[in-house]
Write a sequence for this structure.
């Protein structure tokens, strides 16, 4: 039996991130506090079946993720192509799918995202789903802001959310993305 979840640390400009992959794809990219990492690992280990082997080597997904992250931080990549394994509820997956469609250099409000997935008035539920995103940056929950443009709630810390948004603004040449003073 092979190990269901393979992890490694990746050094990035926003700190050391813990990456994880299984036979179905990348399932973890976390740079939050140690307790956040532990929670994500525990959840994933309970959800991923070690006996389910789709013939893919988790190491190949981690290598691709590492290369794509390097290109992203160098300003050469604006959309990730690595295969993901993102177990969650139907609602969470709808939120994460919509987040992946937010173009690099742009933001959307929690309320607008909720409306777009057919859950008008569900801004808080979108925020909760965002908080359960285990694949930071690739599923770009950092691109979701309050309707005022204020930054709120980011597992990797608001300073990292701000850094990522400013980085994307610089590489795409987009205008003001968020209210830096809020």
């Amino acid at each position: 039996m092979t190990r269901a979840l393979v992890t490694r640390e990746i050094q990035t400009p926003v700190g050391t991130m813990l990456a994880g992959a299984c036979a179905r794809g990348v399932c973890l990219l976390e740079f939050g506090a140690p307790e956040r990492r532990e929670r994500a690992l525990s959840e994933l280990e309970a959800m991923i079946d070690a006996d389910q082997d789709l013939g893919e080597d988790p190491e190949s997904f981690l290598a691709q993720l590492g290369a794509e992250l390097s290109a992203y931080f160098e300003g050469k990549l604006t959309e990730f192509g690595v295969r993901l394994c993102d177990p969650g509820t139907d609602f969470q997956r709808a939120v994460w799918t919509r987040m992946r469609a937010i173009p690099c250099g742009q933001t959307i409000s929690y309320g607008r995202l909720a409306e777009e997935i057919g859950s008008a008035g569900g801004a808080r539920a979108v925020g909760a789903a965002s908080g359960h995103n285990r694949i930071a940056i690739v599923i770009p929950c950092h691109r979701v802001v309050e309707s005022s443009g204020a930054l709120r709630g980011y597992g990797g810390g608001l300073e990292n959310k701000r850094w990522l948004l400013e980085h994307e603004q610089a590489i795409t040449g987009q205008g003001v993305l968020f209210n830096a003073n809020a």
